[in-house]
Design a protein that fits this description.
- With about 100 residues, the chain is mainly alpha-helical.
- The chain folds into two domains: about 30 residues, no CATH class; about 70 residues, no CATH class.
- Helices cover about 75% and strands about 0% of the residues.
- The protein has five helices and no strands.
- The longest helix has 27 residues.
Length: about 100
């Protein structure tokens, strides 16, 4: 699907503002599938770490303080999601390491 989108011309206002080369440059990394793989792996790792942290915190807090468990596990899950995405996307050359 990303390949189809990258073949289509950009929106008219975008074409006037940035041009087709900018449109292709942005979508170029997406058409390789690396960004999809990075997104899927990051999602799976992030959700697993969120659930695992939530379960462990429930044991530690003996079922109390739901708000700390949900917020704490979400922070862990999002951190893992972001780190995995950045690593995989950079390894596949979607984003250069210098950006990070």
């Amino acid at each position: 699907m990303f390949w189809v989108v990258s073949v289509l011309p950009g929106e008219a206002t975008w074409q006037q503002y940035a041009g087709q080369s900018a449109y292709v440059a942005i979508l170029g990394g997406m058409s390789s599938g690396g960004i999809v793989l990075a997104s899927l792996l990051a999602y799976l790792c992030g959700e697993f770490s969120n659930s695992y942290t939530l379960a462990k915190m429930k044991i530690l807090t003996q079922g109390r303080w739901l708000w700390t468990r949900t917020i704490g596990s979400t922070l862990v899950g999002q951190l893992v999601d972001t780190v995995v995405f950045v690593l995989v996307a950079s390894l596949f050359g979607i984003f250069p390491w210098s950006l990070f």
